[in-house]
Amino acid sequence: MKLHPSTGLHGTISVPGDKSVSHRSVMLGALADGVTHVSGFLMGEDCLSTIDCFRKMGVPIEVGDDRTVTVHGVGLHGLKQPAERLYTGNSGTTTRLISGILSGQSFEVSLTGDASIEKRPMGRIIQPLRQMGADITGVDDKFCPLTIRPGKLHGIEYTLPVASAQLKSAILLAGLYADTPTTVIEPAPSRDHTERMLRALGCRVDTDGCRITLYPPEKLTARDVVVPADISSAAFFLVAGAIVPNSEITIRDVGVNPTRDGVIEVLKNMGADITLSNLRDEGEPICDITVRSSQLHGVEIGGAVIPRLIDELPVLAVAAAFAQGETVIRDAAELKVKESNRIAAMVSELSRAGADVTETEDGMIIRGGRPLHGAAFETYHDHRIAMSMAVCALACSGDSEILDENVVAISYPDFFDALHRLGG
Predict the structure, then answer these.
(1) How many CA atoms lie less than 13 Å away from 207 in the CB half-sphere?
(2) In which element (H, E) is residue 358 found?
(3) Which of 28, 89, 187, 188 has CB 3.0 to 4.6 Å from 49, enough for a Cys bridge?
(4) Would you call 298 helix, strand, or coil by DSSP?
(5) Angle of CA points 112, 117, 121, to nearest 5°
């Protein structure tokens, strides 16, 4: 994919539905009594992997042409043993969350994903699920493929070693099948889509600060889901609009869940001209966001904000490269175990464009303000690296190339078309 410097990005766009909410709408819709109608569903490869897994367990799921999905729930105890191993593709969310659900089933099942998934740490879910009574094994007790056999689950109180919505959700979803309440204690708040959706379906989930307790329900009751636009996808346009001169972009219907909106907070702290309008609540808080070209300055990004923007850190690193002064990203070692080592990947690719960036143990230091030039950028088979470097390319001097650009289909199949419509 060839990219040329942009003289300005203008227009109003809609980005795909929230990946986290889309995953959960299928999973919990499958376990509910009744029919769940989902609108705004993300038709990316990760979420389609979730649909495929539940279809293989006997859940009728219809996919429409207009980003709608209809899930005919089979109830908490209605899943059936699949005839083959479940394949989760590139989706860590599918792999970890479905493991919690499968721990409470009456049948044996195995699951794995692509080469990236087989390298990603699963020990963090294996250990607490075992404490709950799950019979779950993996390669070296750390990696996929996983095998899960029937086990009698009981509630536990578990303190997470890292703030991770995937880990928290795996435990809470297993807690649906436990004989006593399950409590998870987070070191810092992570995205709370699982808790919100469980409550909407009739499950009692109490939150007291960073302490979340789920009480096992007799059933879940289906409820239609409106999926907001994904703030992680919107983040690429927020940064593009800020760093490309003469730009003004409005992104419609973006989910601004307070456990996910750290990217807006940080960009505003950097000096970005960002306006939120038309704020409303549709199960998740939603609004329209407008960004205009801005003179950014360096900031420190670390601490409690990290779980609220972990997926947006690659593109925030791009923003930092075009900001004046130094930006320090810390407390982000979790980036090393995403689809790629996103710390090493962003340091390498930003350096390729001429940025002054140094890798640290848990983040990076970016000394912004240097003029950057186009280059041929690697993607590391990581959709967020590909899109981050595409945004970078628009503000570089000279042409650039994104290698293996098709990887964006994981979360945003039409990303390059959207850039083109805005003038990129």
Answers:
(1) 17
(2) strand 356-360
(3) 89
(4) coil
(5) 105
Q: What is the three-class DSSP state of 411? A: coil
Residues 253/43, Cβ–Cβ less than 8 Å: no
What long-range pairs does 186-189 form, CB within 8 A, spacing at least 24?
A: 186/160, 186/210, 186/211, 186/212, 187/159, 187/160, 187/161, 187/162, 187/163, 188/163, 188/303, 188/304, 188/306, 188/307, 189/163, 189/259, 189/304, 189/307, 189/308
pLDDT at 65: 87
% of the chain residues with pLDDT over 90 = 98
Collapsing DSSP to helix, strand or coil, 299 comes out as coil
Cβ(283)–Cβ(193) under 8 Å? no
Q: Tell me the C-alpha distance between 301 and 281, whole Å.
A: 28
Contact 394, 5 (CB under 8 A): yes
Q: Give residue for tokens 């969310």.
A: 93
Could you give the 3-state DSSP secondary structure of residue 174? Answer: helix
SS3 label, residue 72:
strand
Strand partners, 138: 146
CA 397, 403, 405, 408 dihedral sign is negative
The DSSP 8-state label assigned to residue 16 in this structure reads P
Q: Which of 3, 73, 15 is nearest to 44 (CA)?
A: 15
The catalytic site residues sit at 311
Of all helices (H) and strands (E), which one includes residue 418?
helix 415-422
What is the per-residue pLDDT across 335-387, written as a single tens digit (0 to 9) for each?
Answer: 999 999 999 999 999 999 999 999 999 999 999 999 999 999 999 999 999 99
Distance CA 362, CA 229 (A): 29
Residues 6+ apart with CB under 8 A from 39: 67, 68, 224, 225, 226, 227
Both tokens assigned to 323 = 């900001």
